[in-house]
Every structure is written in C-alpha cells, then in structure tokens.
Specification:
A hairpin with a 4-residue loop joins β1 and β2 (34-40). The protein is mostly beta strands and 106 residues long. Strands 1-2-3-4-5-6-7-8 form an 8-stranded antiparallel barrel. The radius of gyration is 12 Å and the shape is globular. The protein has one helix spanning 2-14, and strands at 22-29, 34-40, 44-47, 53-58, 63-68, 71-77, 87-92, 97-105.
Length: 106
Amino acid sequence: MKLLMAAGAALALAALPALAESTTVQFVAADGTTSVVVFNGDGTAVMDGGDPIPYTMNEDTKTVCGETPDGELCATFDELGDEVGFSTGYTNTAGVTGTATITAKD
C-alpha cells in the first residue's frame, strides 16, 4: 500500500513541464510517510530504487497517472512547477494527501 500511495504522489510531480534528464521529488504524506521518486525523461519513474513504471501527465488538469504494480494510480497537484525547491500539495486517487518538493534535476 505504501508503494501505491507514494507512487501516485510521485507521478504527479514528476511529469512537470520542461523535463530534464531526470527530476528527483521528495513526497511527504500527511501521515509523515516519505518517499523519493526519480522521474526520467523517457517517461518512467523510479520510487525508492524500485522498478521503473510508465506515467502520463495532463498539464490542464495538473494530474499525472501511472501504472503501478497495484494498477493505475493518479494524483492531482495544487500547482505545477519545475525548479529545484518547488513545493506543492497533492491528492491521489488512493486518498493520500501531502506535499511534494523537487529536490534535484540532472
């Protein structure tokens, strides 16, 4: 379940405009659970060193969806950004809320 919740959150911020080779995002859920996701320019995301999963981003709705091992999970962000240090709130389809912060871009 942690993977499902964090992956959805991570996916949402990973596909922010102007993709770099990779963008690293730290997600902190309201319950304090923390995950780190690396979003790659090839349309895949890796959470906490796991296997890559594909994702898509709808900038109009600020929603990202990805195929996790547990099925599709989507997350909607309050705002979109692409600079290191940018933070925003998120809510995913599993009901998890929290804050996502871009911590690195390569």
